[in-house]
Amino acid sequence: MKLQEMREKSIDELKSAIIDFKKELFSLRLQKSTHKLENTALISTTKNKIAQAKTVLKEKEVTTNA
Fold this sequence. Notes:
It is a single chain. By secondary structure, the protein is mostly helical. The protein has one domain (3-65): Helix Hairpins, CATH 1.10.287.310. Helices cover 82% and strands 0% of the residues. The protein has helices at 3-8, 11-33, 41-65. The longest helix has 25 residues, at 41-65. It starts with a helix and ends with a helix. The relative contact order is 0.18.
């Protein structure tokens, strides 16, 4: 999901996306620990997605409360 797509989502959709990204990150970490993960870069990209979603969420919360 690109940053522009995240900005178009509502607050509830962003919260559910963050939960989905965290589940994906857990799955990737589990695969890494069992040595079944081939592309370890997916872990860092998933972390970046979580950070981007949290940033956009915070931006939306600040603008709606202001």
